[in-house]
Amino acid sequence: MIKSARTLAARFWKDESGASMVEYVILISLVTIFLVAAIGLMSDEILARFEQITTLLNTAGA
Fold first, then answer.
1. Count of alpha carbons within 13 Å of 38, Cβ hemisphere only?
2. pTM above the 0.85 mark?
């Protein structure tokens, strides 16, 4: 029983199949944090651009 538990633990410790998934999760997390920060920094510019487009569309239709 103890030998099989040790064998199972050793196999689990050496298994690297989930390592790439963890790396992808870390990479996606970093990209998401970067995008949220970038959008947060540019939010005023984005809002101003949408207001400018709205104004142009409203004056073009009048």
1. 6
2. no
d(CA 41, CA 49): 14
Summarize pLDDT for 3-32 with one digit per residue, the tens.
Answer: 788 888 788 777 766 678 788 899 999 999
Give the Cα separation of 35 and 12 in Å (integer). 36
Q: Which two tokens stand for residue 11?
A: 């196999």
DSSP string, 1-62: -HHHHHHHHHHHHH--TTHHHHHHHHHHHHHHHHHHHHHHHHHHHHHHHHHHHHHHHHHHH-
Cα–Cα dist 5/13, whole Å: 12
How many residues appear in the chain?
62
